[in-house]
């Protein structure tokens, strides 16, 4: 008999390490790859994913998951990746070479690139955050988790047509949200190439 996600979460909430380890084994590798797209550092990606799982285990008695386990994990990893990137910015400013001399051109270039990417992420994330919860989950599974419409439909127990409609709705809403700031986005992109 195959356990439902609710059963698995209940088992984890009741201190069942085997259920927790099963979820870890099922998702760790793909979540690490997903995180790597954001942080571009393999070691940091693995650490961040491990932190997400540690956090889940520590909160297992009070954890409330309103989406699928997979959607919850991808959202948690994405959020932790964004927090990591925000914390990395000050470190870039303190980067020092082996001689103890700051290479200002490298720091300025990295800082500009990071700033541009952070600004773009903020704009896009704010637009995504305005989507209805179901639409947001489907959009994140499609764009961030790289799942196909069929996989999303199976994961969320929906029809493929519903997933297609939700993605179309999300893209229309995002265009509406981002259209007024399109000029700002283009300026940020151009700054990166100057």
TrEMBL record:
CDD domains for this protein: Sigma70_r4
**Residue ranges annotated for the HTH luxR-type domain, each copy included:** 146-173
* PROSITE patterns assigned: HTH_LUXR_1
Which Pfam families does the record cross-reference, listed alphabetically?
Sigma70_r2, Sigma70_r4_2
Q: Would I find Transcription regulation among this entry's keywords?
A: yes
Iron: is it a keyword of this entry?
Answer: no
Q: Give the matching Gene3D superfamilies.
A: 1.10.1740.10, Winged helix-like DNA-binding domain superfamily/Winged helix DNA-binding domain
User: Do you know which InterPro entries this protein is assigned to?
Assistant: RNA_pol_sigma-70-like, RNA_pol_sigma-70_dom, RNA_pol_sigma70_bacteroid, RNA_pol_sigma70_r2, RNA_pol_sigma70_r4_t2, RNA_pol_sigma_r2, RNA_pol_sigma_r3/r4-like, Tscrpt_reg_LuxR_C
Molecular function in Gene Ontology: DNA binding; sigma factor activity
What is any one GO biological process for this UniProt entry? Answer: DNA-templated transcription initiation
The family assignment reads:
Belongs to the sigma-70 factor family. ECF subfamily.
Under the heading PANTHER family, the entry gives: RNA POLYMERASE ECF-TYPE SIGMA FACTO, RNA POLYMERASE SIGMA-70 FACTOR ECF SUBFAMILY
Name of the protein in its database record: RNA polymerase sigma-70 factor, ECF subfamily
Q: Which organism is it from?
A: Reichenbachiella agariperforans
